[in-house]
Every structure is written in C-alpha cells, then in structure tokens.
Design brief:
Strand content: under 5%
Order of helices and strands: HHHHHHHHH
Helix content: over 70%
Shape: globular
CATH topology: Growth Hormone, Chain: A
Amino acid sequence: MPFSTESTPANRRAYTVLALLLAGVAGAVNATGFVALGLHTSHMSGNMASLGESLALGERRMAVLAAQVLLAFVVGAVTASALLDASRHRSRGRHVAALLVETVTLGGIGVMLSTAHGSREPLLMWGLSFAMGLQNALVTRVSGAVVRTTHVTGILTDIGIQLVQMVAWVRDGARGRGFAGLLRRVRGLPSAIEFERTRLHLGLACAFLFGATCGPALYVHHGPAALGLPCVLLLVLIGLDLGHAAHRQPSPVARG
C-alpha cells in the first residue's frame, strides 16, 4: 500500500504526483464533458440513478444512453486492468499503455468535437466514460484500492476520517506526558503517515477542483482544444513512468 509505514518517502512522493495529476485530469474531463455534452462522465452514481429514473418514467432513450455510459465505464476499467496485467513483469513503464490509451481517447474526442462542434453524439459520451473507467481502475490498482481520482465523495469521506485519526495520533502519543509531550507530538505531526494521507486527500480535492475549473474555462474560450489540458497531464505521467530508473524500488507510477 503506497501510504503505509512500509513504503518509502520517495515512493509516497511519486504516488502523490500520480494521484494529483490524475485527479486534475478527472476534474477537467468531468466538467468539460458536462459543458460540452451535458453529462458528468465520471459520475457513475448519478448515471445509475438516471438509469433508474428513466426506467421508472418509461423514458427508453435516456435509459439506453445511461446504460451505455455505465457499460463504457466498465469496459474502460476492464481495459486498464488487462493492460496492467499484461505489463506487470516490466521493470518500468508499466502504466504507459493504459495512460496512452486514455490520452488517445481524449485526444480523439477533442478532434471529433472540433469537427462537429455542439454535437451530443452518444459516441462522445461513451468515449469520455471509457476514459474515466480506465483511469479509475488504473489508480485503484496502483493505490491498492485506497484512492480513486474520478469522484470526490470518497475523498471528502477520507478527509473526515483522517482528521479524526490525526487527533487520535496526537492524543495517544501525548498521553501521560503533560503539556510538553502534547507540544512535541503536535510538532511531530507533519512526519506522521496520518498527516501525509490527509494532505494527499486534501490535495486530490483541490486538484479535482482545479481541473474542473480550468477545463470548462478553456472550453468556453478555446472550444474542444480544452481537452488538450488533460492530454498534456497524461503525457507528463507517461514521461515520468518511462523515466523511472529500473534499478530503483518501483514507485507508484511504475507499480502494478
């Protein structure tokens, strides 16, 4: 698990970079997709609810669309998992294939949008959902099911839980040591795993918000070229993955 007492500081830093960049990608894709297509393509809870509502109201077309988006997300998750399994024996670049597929998918959707600006073709929604399913499975595998970057509900829940764990860490370490012991424990908090986990999830929430703000702003001013932002972030991750030295302990960017 990336954020445990057994992982190295370098490993945790590399994992943090991976998670933050992918959270920014998810925020940008999700918000830009809503502005362009009217659909949050990483919000599967909402799409599942939409499927149920459409079935209940007899809206067959909307029900079919919601089901297709859900299926595309699952196909993306299957694709990521299969690509990770196929490259699990590589010493580095294990995630390049999955990241490259996501980059090409988002780039292709940007091109399609630019040729049919304003179109709400279901294929575009399927593509964005596929990309988010792929990314979610990738991060889930890398983090040991600790973090998912495509939705914020779990991140906010973890922040609440970890804030309590931080207080408990300080309380347990200072018990019976008086006020001086409490101060020492508080000063030592930044080096605790509990603090690093909280900082990570706060960073993920901010990265998602940053992407969700920049994506639509770029789309309003530059149209489908806004999808270049998440593509650039993914290319940065590909470069980091390929540049990871094979003889070093595998970082989260190169673990499977």
